[in-house]
Amino acid sequence: MLEKVDLNKKVDKQQYKAMVSGLHDRLYTVQKLSWDKGIPVVIIFEGWDASGKGTSIQALTEPLDPRGFKLYPIRAARTYEKNHPWLWRFWLKLPARGEWAIFDRSWYGRVLVERIDGLIPEDEWRRAYRDIVDFEHTIADDGHLIIKFFLHISKEEQRNRFEKLSKDPLTAWHVASEDWDHHKHYDEWALAYEEMFERTESEWGPWTIVEATNRSHTRIKIFQTIIKAMEENLGVSTERPEQQGEISLTSSTTLEDSGNEAQRTTSS
What band does 236 get if pLDDT is binned at 50, 70 and 90? Predict the structure, then answer.
């Protein structure tokens, strides 16, 4: 799946400047509408190290009302959290009615870093796929809108970004020895991501693969995907007449659409 993704997609600076203001307005509008309607929204960011999850989240939250969302950077479970069922700490972070919860990494760490780094036995991370699907199905049935992003970059792009960050004293702290170790096992991580997509893709929690080589493209696609999902959930359109005809990057956003596109390419 991932090897079929076109990582050369880009939005030039002029296009970005022309589109971003209108998308900011629409993001604020759908956030306000979800608050008024009492719809809790869960937005998940997963992806490669240095793929731009943090900067994308920063760009996303810029136009939002800070009273209406909470951001959760997820790290390894603390000692007291390990004394509960593994999803317990995530239940506590679910948004209230009308709020957005944005996760910088998430419960998918169970089948990613905990799997790759051998932090838990194999039977536990394999069982986690079922736990995750059941968890997301439960909260979706309760009215939560789930939007899941995976930011994808190539191994070469990841190395270039690590090197650039490491050369600047102000950003070198972003790259730890474990990040380079993960980079060496890029192919192993890719297999874990592929299995994650296969086992956890669902109608109530579809994955959106974001081509993250170009920062402008990354942000526009994330903004458009959230707006589209919110509009479909709310049954409204926030697009103004002057915005009609702008480029859309959401025509192949979901994993299912990406898979169909890859299948068509292979068949031809």
Answer: very high
Q: Which domains does the chain possess?
A: 2-267 (3.40.50.300)
Radius of gyration of the chain (CA): 18
215-234 and 13-37 are packed helices; what angle lies between their axes, rounded to 10 degrees?
Answer: 30
Distance CA 27, CA 225 (A): 10
Task: Read off the DSSP letter of residue 92.
Answer: T
Give the Cα separation of 59 and 75 in Å (integer): 21
Residue 247: pLDDT band with limits 50, 70, 90 = low
Is the CB of residue 58 less than 8 Å from the CB of residue 96?
A: no
At 244 the pLDDT is 59
Q: Crossing angle, helix 215-234 and helix 53-61, to 10 degrees?
A: 50
Per the CB < 8 A criterion, the answer to whether 4 and 258 are in contact is yes
CA neighbor of 39 nearest in space, from 10, 69, 73, 5:
69
Which of 26, 96, 92 has the alpha carbon at shortest distance from 63?
Answer: 26
Mean pLDDT, all residues of the chain = 92
Number of helices followed by number of strands (H, E) in the chain? 10, 5
Pair of tokens at residue 11:
């939005």
Fill in the amino acid letter for 124.
E
Query: What is the CA 201 to chain-centroid distance, rounded?
Result: 13
